[in-house]
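My main concern about presentation is that the manuscript never shows what a single data entry looks like. In essence, backbone conformation is discretised, so a fold becomes a row of integers matching the chain in length. An entry of this sort, consisting of the sequence and the corresponding backbone structure tokens, reads as follows:
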Amino acid sequence: MPYDKSLDAELFKEVKEFDGSRITVGVFSYNNGEKKLQVGRENQDASGEWRFSKLGRMTKEEAQAVIPVMMKAVENM
């Protein structure tokens, strides 16, 4: 069964912006299923557009900003 965006419910979302990138923390439930935490990164290209990027590693500054948001997200699960 292919992914259907209309079945994906966004229950929580918060974005933290950094120099040239941003990290989004969200809680989603697909087709009324189990609530799941999603963490993603986007980088800004030369034209100012946001592009998906593998999250991979975070700097200390990023981790310190994102961990409290993750804790808030967990409260929404």
